[in-house]
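Ticket #4471: structure export looks truncated?
Reporter: QA, pipeline team
Priority: medium

Steps to reproduce: submit the single chain below to the structure queue and open the exported record.
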Amino acid sequence: MMGKEGSMENLSLEDDDKLTSISKSYSNYRSAMTCLSDCHHPLSPSIVDDSVDPLLASSIQPSVIDDHDIVVEQFQNPTIISPPLNLEYLNITVSDPHKEIQASPSIVPGTNTYVTYLITTQTNLPDYGGSDFTVRRRFKDIVTLSDRLSEGYRGYFIPPRPDKSIVESQVMQKQEFVEQRRLALEKYLHKLAAHPLIKKSDELRVFLQVHGKLPLPTTTDVASRVLDGAVKLPKQLFGESGNVIRPQDVVHPAKGGRDLLRLFKELKQSVANDWGASKSSVDEEDKVFLENKERLHNIELQLSNASKQAESLVKAQQDMGDTIGELGLTFIKLTKFENERATMNTQRERAADMKNVATAAVKASRLYRELNSQTVKHLDILHEHLSLMLGIHHAFSDRSSALLTVQTLISELSSLNSRAEKLETATSKIFGGDKSRVRKLEELKDSIRVTEDAKSCAIREYERIKENNQSEIDRINRERHVDFVNMLKGFVTNQVAYTERIGQEWSKVAEETSRYSRES
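Actual output as written to the record:
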């Protein structure tokens, strides 16, 4: 895109070769919207250089227009103001993708290599014990970090990690895919660094600081977990292994697959909640939470619609810039034609006027592209908050899962107590007792004690997740208010500023060609 812009700025009306080259290549230039369409979302700002916002500049200085060149006003770079020294910051950049060779060759062709990225961190957070760190990480490390955060911070709105797009890696050019992944990883780490709790977590700190292999435990794949659970299930059913939920297990969701018996019990409880005649003794009755949940659901729908409309606006502005640019190039050709065949002064005057129109059209095209870049940057807030909804759903799912565990343990405890009472009654009717029944009764009482402890732990975990949910709802509401106000201010201000600049260009042309109206 920059090559095209540079050509348009230095276009000489007498240079026929340059004119032909630009005319042919204009339709292929990559502007903001064209680049955006290659990404995962049309409003992704990663392609746009958002380091320069022309509205932050103290002044706008036009370039000098040469008699034979069509040039465009350049907005000056804004003055960068350093943040206060006492302001906490955690700046993370992802760069220098490098292909590595797998230590153990893979049996699958083409999968024995992977790409690592240089993660550079600058921070003044005391938790990090330093200010500058660099490590190399691969995408699998990002997956591990995401899994550890999801397990350790249940109930929090953890930003979702980028997907592992295997299909895209095969379809797209390798270099392009690696660059898009780099941008996605950097964006993901920025979101983690912006979270008030996650940015100080041990998991993120280890990820950013420790060299070599990531020292966080990796998550076993689903197939392996289910296989382990299947091996353990017969022992649980026949009493060879513990068939009660242990206290240390309730802080993790059952859907992991390692304990299929617990999974079946919670599935049974879920069906009973939905279809059973009796209501569970513990239910979700927090009206404030339910109202917030419904409100966030409606916000998600509105954000989805607004994001689509923002995409349409970006596309429309892009088309407008393209069309005006094509118009300018057409008038350039017409001007050259008139100059070459001019025999009268009136023809030369008309050619000069067409040159002015061409100049204004090319300038307007450039301004539309710059406006589009700023529009993408500001309206991307809509997509950012929309993408966070996945993390919100996961946090609410943590809450539902924890509640289901509590309900399951209460039902399990009720069943164990009922069985113990019946066995105790049957044993008391036999003179001298029955040793096997007495032993069975003791085992039941042990199970009841373990289940009681597990229930207490599950209730504490559920209450902790509820508190996390509420604090995160309050936080996201505050952040959304601030972000949307800034988004609207930036969007409206840019629209006004660029519209005025475009209007000024056409006003110059109208003034220069005003004699036509006087003559008529």
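Status: closed, not a bug. The export was complete when the record was re-opened. Leaving a note from the reviewer for reference: The beta strands are 11-12, 60-61, 69-70, 74-75, 90-101, 113-123, 132-138.
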